[in-house]
Amino acid sequence: MDTQVLTYIFVGLSFALYIGIAIWSRASSTNEFYIAGKGVHPVANGMATAADWMSAASFISMAGLIAFLGKDGSVYLMGWTGGYVLLALLLAPYLRKFGQYTVPDFIGARYYSNAARLVAVICLIFVSFTYVAGQMRGVGIVFSRFLEVDINLGVIIGMCIVFFYAVLGGMKGITYTQVAQYCVLIFAYLVPAIFISILMTGNPIPQLGFGDTLVNSDVYLLDKLDKVTTELGFNAYTENTKSTIDIFCITAALMFGTAGLPHVIVRFFTVPRVSDARKSAGYALIFIAILYSTAPAVSAFARMNFIDSVQEVQYKEAPSWFKNWENIGLIAWKDKNNDELIQYSSGNALEGVKPDFNNGRGLSGERLVNNNSDLSNSNEVYIDRDIMVLANPEIAQLPGWVVALVAAGALAAALSTAAGLLLVISASISHDLLKKTFMTQITEKQELFYARCSAAVAIFIAGLFGIYPPGFVAQVVAFAFGLAAATIFPALLMGIFYKRLNKEGAIAGMLSGLVITSAYIINYKFINVHLNSADNWFLGISPEGFGFIGMIVNFFVAFSICYFFKKPPKSVDQMVDSIRNP
Q1: Are residues 555 and 490 in contact, defined by beta-carbon separation less than 8 angstroms?
Q2: Do 10 and 408 form a contact (C-beta atoms < 8 A)?
Q3: Do the domain assignments include residue 180?
Q4: Res. 469 pLDDT band, cuts 50 70 90
Q5: What is the distance between the alpha carbons of residues 265 and 66, in angstroms, rounded to a whole number?
Q6: What is the pLDDT of residues 306-320, one digit of tens each?
Q7: Tell me, what's the pLDDT at 224?
Q8: Which of 86, 186, 298, 567 could potentially form a cystine with 259 if both were Cys, beta carbons 3.0 to 4.6 Å apart?
Q9: Residues 433-451 as b or e (16 or more Cβ within 10 Å = b)
Q10: Do 83 and 191 reside in the same domain of the chain?
Q11: Based on the structure, what is the number of domains in the chain?
Q12: Domain assignment of residue 276, yes or no
């Protein structure tokens, strides 16, 4: 049975499982639709939280980033996992004790203001749609490569699957679907990593294998990778090139952003007791650590195998995986010296930033300036970093069923997070905007109807992001984390631990964090891309790390503004005291 048929079988079976779970666990009330009836076991919730959080960025893009950035990519490992410690200690149990449905619910009640609730909804929607853009791009990449369908059709299929179990099942359906998706994605991530670790180092444990010696050699894998990358003109794989302040800010932005992600926070509303919220965070950390401790190994294996398989190879004899990814525009080759050999080294292979896709548009939505090569360097290969994990089994010549498994795992990662994000958007619109603000007289049945309608609209918009994506997966997701750190996290933290903060301070803080962070990231990532370098950044801080600065601005503005207005009412003080008591 060939790889294509196996891929259809694996993906089809996983989709059937998700739909079956959605039918079995469909929501019949707003309580079940928003927070799964508060009846999810901590272990199941930890697994669902891990799947909700380990998105296409974690499964597809993170290892690709580390493969190209080397040691600099460790900021993603430290930031994303460290954020869960903050979430477990500072937010999760208190928000669970508050006992409502959404993050804007807490902000609206804590800051006794529908205006604060509205600002929180705007920030939440901004963060969630930014984040979901990366997930839909991941869906598009997997469908276009492994299922050999047009990317637009692939995104539409993904939309339909998410629509079915998100709209029908709500949080209850999504929770148990995400448990299944975690099992699929973690198995799909570990199996090829173990295979490749054995082939390259003889060690069946990837976490140890990438620090081991190569098979039939006394040379360590990382030593060889350092030597090969420096010979090709790249920085040594195990050396940092980013400045200390940039590493600190990126790590901090990802940490505080993780603790402020609304679709992750709401997961802790679904457990029966406050103590279960902490337990869920602990289990989630364990489940997440399995993948995150494996990612550095996958990165090193992928970079080494990629170089070995293409360097100085005749293009007409290039491996089939190279041609397959080239066909969908995620690898491109330009023969600069007309020797018909593939030359991979430091520098841009092409004058533009992305190769053509479907006669004119790359998956990122960017166009080539022209289709000529960049003659200022000798590199002839363009490779999109998002393909490294997906192509890794093919590069290593693993069996077809492993390739099919990775495709199913990547879709599970992207769809699980997309569903969680879309449900958060849906709940914010139906519960916070309609029920709590503009249509306070609607019944629970009407609210559930509006929740499903808003989920459908959100899925449609998410699909547009998949068809017209704004950037590669981790870039877009880093944007979302920066926004969450600069807007939602400070409002939640101060809402719990600083009773003097009033509605005026909270609103001003959230808006200032949103504006300054968005402006900085949009300027360097989407408008003045040619200025996106350390020489032009504020204090040398990259757009990925600027969310930390936005967070500091939020805190400063909130603290400053709140003293110009009267203290919160006593009822708010009593509410804060209540959620802070064990």
Answers
A1: yes
A2: yes
A3: yes
A4: low
A5: 27
A6: 888 888 888 888 888
A7: 92
A8: 86
A9: bbbbbeeeeeeeeebbebb
A10: yes
A11: 2
A12: yes
Is residue 576 in some structural domain?
no
The answer to whether residues 141 and 529 touch, using CB atoms and an 8 Å cutoff, is no
Measured in degrees and rounded to the nearest 5, phi and psi for residue 332 equal: -140, 145
The pLDDT, as a whole number, for residue 363 is 39
In angstroms and rounded to an integer, the radius of gyration of the C-alpha atoms of the chain is 24
Contact (CB, 8 A) for 292 and 77: yes
More confident residue, 183 or 159: 183
Using an 8 Å Cβ cutoff, are 297 and 209 in contact? Answer: yes
267-290 pLDDT, tens digit each: 777 888 878 878 888 888 889 889
CA pair distance 63, 474, nearest whole angstrom: 10
DSSP 67-129: HHHGGGGHHHHHHHHHHHHHIIIIIHHHHHHH--S-HHHHHHHHTT-HHHHHHHHHHHHHHHH
What distance in Å separates the CA atoms of residue 412 and residue 188, rounded to the nearest whole number?
10
The half-sphere exposure of 500 on its side-chain side, counting CA atoms within 13 A, is 8
pLDDT at 555: 96
Q: Which two tokens stand for residue 159?
A: 């939309």
Q: Are residue 413 and residue 378 in the same domain, yes or no?
A: no
Residue 504 has pLDDT above 90, yes or no: yes
Where residue 219 falls (left for φ over 0; alpha for ψ -120 to 50; beta otherwise) is: beta
> CA–CA separation, 482 vs 488, rounded Å?
10
What is the chain's length?
A: 582
> Is residue 489 included in any domain, yes or no?
yes
More reliable by pLDDT, 158 or 475: 158
Q: CB-based burial of residue 538 (10 Å sphere; 0-12 exposed, 13-18 middle, 19+ buried)?
A: exposed
312 and 294 housed in the same domain: no
Q: Using CB atoms within 10 A of its CB, is residue 417 exposed (0-12), middle (13-18) or buried (19+)?
A: buried
Asked whether the predicted pLDDT for residue 502 surpasses 90, the reply is yes
Which pLDDT belongs to residue 362? 42
The reported pLDDT for the residue numbered 78 is 84
CA 47 to chain centre: 16
Q: Are residues 311 and 382 in the same domain?
A: yes
